[in-house]
Amino acid sequence: MFFSSRQDQIITTLISFSKLVSSLIVEKDCSYRLLLRGNPYLDFYHRERMNEINDRADADSSTQTDSVEVVFRRLVDTTTPTLSEGNKSLEEMYAILALPHDGFLSQHHVGEHLYAQIASVLSPPTNSNENLQLRTLKNQLLLRYFADGEKVLQHLASIEVIMDATRAGGWLVPSLSDEDSWRSALVAAANYDILRPETFRRPENKMRHLNQRQYQVAKAIKKLRSLGYTVAIKAGQAEIDLVEQKRISEDIEAHIKTAGGLKTADFLFRRLTKRYDPNQERYHTVRYTSTTGSDREPSCPISYLLNLCVKNVTATQVSSKAQVKVALKKAIKLATAYAAAFDLEPYNTFETLFHSGAKLTGFLQELSIYDAMFNLAQARPSSMEKELRNLFDWLEDDVSLQHFGWTVSQAAQVLRAIVEMSCDVRGPFRLTFNELASRLPDIEQSSIAAILSVFSHPIGTANRDYQLPYEQTKVDFWFKPLIEQTPNSSYILIDRSWCAPAFYEAVVSAVRDKVPETDNNIGLAFERLVKSELTAHGVRVVSGKYSVNGRDGECDAVIETATHIIFIEMKKKSLTRKARSGSDVDLFYDLCESLLAAQCQIGRHELLLVEHGRLDLHDGSSNHCIKLNGRAIERVALSPVEFGALQDRNVIEQILRTVMTSRLSATDRKNAVRVNKVRKKGEELLRQYEEMASLKPAAKASFMNYWFLSLGHLLTILQGVSTNDSFQSSLFKTRHITTGSMDFYFERSILTALT
Q1: Where in the chain are the domains?
Q2: Whole-prediction pTM value?
Q3: What are 422-454's pLDDT values in tens digits?
Q4: Which UniProt keywords apply (predicted)?
């Protein structure tokens, strides 16, 4: 979706092939480059396969696509095929097309000839920067067909033939300014349509099924228009200007106020109850895709609605039951249509695969913004007490009491009490100070009050400035789990699973403000916690420093089995709010400091182990010898927090391939340092990959042994584990199978049920 303010201060786009905010240039194999420029985050502008960056990059994509559509439709309308609909004899076709033959005639031979003709005449010069984006044009025509009811089936059939014929070249074709070439190609396309009308002439139900994503965007456009909102179709996407966006979001919020923020949240969580997994203590709000397309309705943007509920949780508007029911229905329908118009939701599994180079940037932005709008960031409530105690085991009680008036142990006890009080409740839960204090007689009430002030948002402050779905930098609710309902007396926990991560965020924010080196201390505590959890489940884990021929390093954790050596490297970097909003630079930098940094470290360990056959680790007074002995190596990057779909194994592979085979550079000096760091990590990974190939020339190129997990993922893997071998088996449960949901927990639950 493309959004623009009248003052041109913000241009926000959220679409797969034509938009993307950026201060980043991605060059793939030196053959094309992608310019993404504009606001440092939120808005993005996407151009595929550009050979040169020049003033043309600043041109208005929407206007260009509109004019391209007009020219393309004119060319199709004025093109006459040389073959005849009435006479389809092969002899006549061969004669008309001047095809030689030896007496054997076939439709296949004619089709191949027509495809070769199209590919030949639409082969652009290698230095051309005037390439037509066929997919964008196709999407534009599909939206015209589904939303506006325009008669463009013949135009769509022509572009389908051309896209199929030029697939091998990546759909890279010259612009329509080369009318002679295009007319020749369109004649061949029309001839092919006559030869094989069953291939691309499709009835409406088939069109809907094969183009489900564009169909749902078109339905959203029609819905919004029917409600009185202005929505245009430009550049193959819905276009809503910023003023109209705000009007839509204000109307959604007005419906929530009528129903009541708390009642709306309760209603939404009751709808989610059937997706709740009691074993994992979380809701499965995931992407549902199919390998053949999915005839289903768009998903409700649950996270967007709940964040608006949080903003209005203390709304006091009085409404009847009938008014509440109507308001709930209106809020959900409007928000669903609004979100569907963003065109972020995949319907076909293949939409999430095979992104690299320039395309990957927009894909990652879509994943992050989708997660922020549709998915709930959650944690296992019953694990939070242990995590809090362990991650802050370095904070002395006297220091904590001096700065905050409470200790980490006391905060953990308050957390546990809240979790226990809400254990049977899905959705909003109200607790009072007196109820909490009665459960904690050993903690002074002044300390409980101080802890609750850290855990709770004051009345009317949570998400106060939040309005538009992609404004994740204005979502502050996840920094504190509670909302104050009555000053110093009663509090609301919107949902225990959704709010669980905020207990940690609240404490770390408070401590970071007062105690130096907080982040470094948490990083070390994170390593201790991971090793402790592994050991508690019977997993023998070793770690330590090494020095091999002047090359020094340190392994955070190594787990050995008879067949595998599993390296685990831990990085405390989290996914920032700017990255969740779609900032390409922040996305790549956050991944650089977590996934890439960890994999680079593991790569150094692996190279030395393969080259020398052993790695001697020294951990204080202990020594450990890791011998390769022909075993395979698994590489696990581990983060204390979750990155959502960015941790999906298919996505990881696409990220790694791109940073290794592409060159990244910043379009402005402000981001140059961070982008340069990402580029260097990619170069290091590529060097390691090439060196490994020289050491093991028979090895197949694969990223199947690369992982990017969170602490929550690890704790889930450890369920039922009692040995090193059972840990490997549990880790591998989702190694070779995916549902396309891009959700670790959902896939674990499905495969666990099947086995």
Answers
A1: 68-201, 233-369, 381-515, 539-754
A2: 0.90
A3: 999 999 999 999 999 999 999 999 999 999 999
A4: Plasmid
